[in-house]
Amino acid sequence: MCLAIPGKIIELDPLNALQAVVDVVGVRRKVDLGLLADDPPVPGDWVLIHVGFAMSKISEADATEQMQTLMMLGEAEAAMQEVRGYGLENDGQSLPGQGRPS
Amino acid sequence: MKFVDEFRAPELISKAGEEIRKLADPQRHYRIMEVCGGHTNAIYRFGLKDLLPANIELIHGPGCPVCVLPMGRIDDGLSLAARPDFIFAAFGDMMRVPGTHGSPLEYKARGMDVRIVYSPADALKLARANPEKHVMFFAIGFETTAPSTALTLVRAKAEGLHNFSVFCNHVTIIPAIRAILDSPDMRIDGFVGPGHVSTVIGCRPYDWIAKDEGKPVVVSGFEPLDILQSIVMLLRQLRKGEASVENQYKRVVPWEGNRAALRAMAEAFELRPYFEWDSYRNRL
Questions:
Q1: What pTM did the predictor assign?
Q2: Domains of chain B
Q3: Which 15-74 residues of chain B touch chain A by CB within 8 A?
Q4: Domain span holding position A64
Q5: Does the structure show a pLDDT above 80 at A93?
Q6: CB-based contacts of B255, cutoff 8 Å, min separation 6
Q7: ipTM greater than cut 0.90
C-alpha cells in the first residue's frame, strides 16, 4: 500500500485507454493509468504502482532496484499478493473477494 | 543492473558512514526524524543505526497509516456497514485490525458481507455488479493511496452510481509533520522526507519546514545508501546553519509531484481541520 510496486507496461487495453496490462516479475495484471493522464505510459515503459494505479514512470534500473528493495525489506511477498489481487479480467467477469485465478 | 549493484556496494556504504562521522559535530546531539514507515523498516533491516555515531539519534515518525488509525474509526466504519444491504470493502491490511467488537474479518465470520479489495477501483466494480447493494469502501492511507480513491470517486460520480460510498480515513503527511513540530517535547533537527508520498505531492509542500521552522528536509529513497546519503545531506546543511528542501531521490521523485494525482485529490476531497491520530507513542 505505501511501498510502490514496480511493473512493466505490456499492452494498453484496446477497450479502455486508461487501463493497461503490466508485468510484475512474471505476473501479469491490469492496472489503472488514470493518474498518469498527463504523461501516459506506452508499452515497454516502467511504472511504480500503488493499490492498482500506476503513479509514476521510472527507468528500468529503478524498477529493478525497487523490486530488490521490496525483497530486502521483506515486503516482496505482500507486494506480489497485492498484484495477484488486481486481476486480469475485464470489468464484471471476476469480482473481488470471490476468488480469482492467480 | 550495474546501477543496482553499486547501491549494494559495501565500500560506498562505509564511505557514507565515514562522511557522516566527519560531518557530525561531536559536541552536538542530532535528532533526525524519518517520517515514513518504509524508511524506519529499512533502518532496522539494514542495521543502519550501527553505522551512525552515538550522537545521531533517529526518531521514528508517524509512519504507518494503519497503525495511527484510531480504533473508533474502525468501529464507526463497521457499524455503518452493519446493514443487510451493505458490502464493506477494504484493503487486506485492514482485515485483522481490531475494533471494539472485533476486526472486519470477525464481523465477516458473524455474517457481514466483507470483501478484500486490492484497489479502490475494485470496490467500484463491486458496486456496478451489485446494484441492489450499497458498497462502502473503507479508505485508508497517505498520499500514495488517496489519489486512487479520489479518482475512483470522480468516476463513480461521472457514472451516476449511487450505491457506492467511501468512508474516508485518508491522512496527509504535512499536518502530521506540523503536529510533530508543534509538540513542545519534540526537538527535531531535520527530516528524512518520505519517498513515495513525495512522488505524488512533490517537494514543494515541505518548503515551510525549512523556511518557517528552520529545519532541513531531504526526500530520500529506500536503499541503505539512499538513507545514509540523506543523513549526509542533512548534516551538511546543519553544519552550515542552513535549512532547505533537497531531493536525494531525484531518480523517482519529481520536484512538482504528480499533477494528475493532485488534481484528483483536490476534486474529490477537502481537508478537515482536525483528525484524531492514535499516537504511536500511546502504543509503545
A1: 0.89
A2: 1-29+47-56 (no CATH), 71-172+260-283 (3.40.50.11740)
A3: 36-38, 41-42, 45-46, 64-65
A4: 5-86
A5: no
A6: B202, B203, B204, B247
A7: no
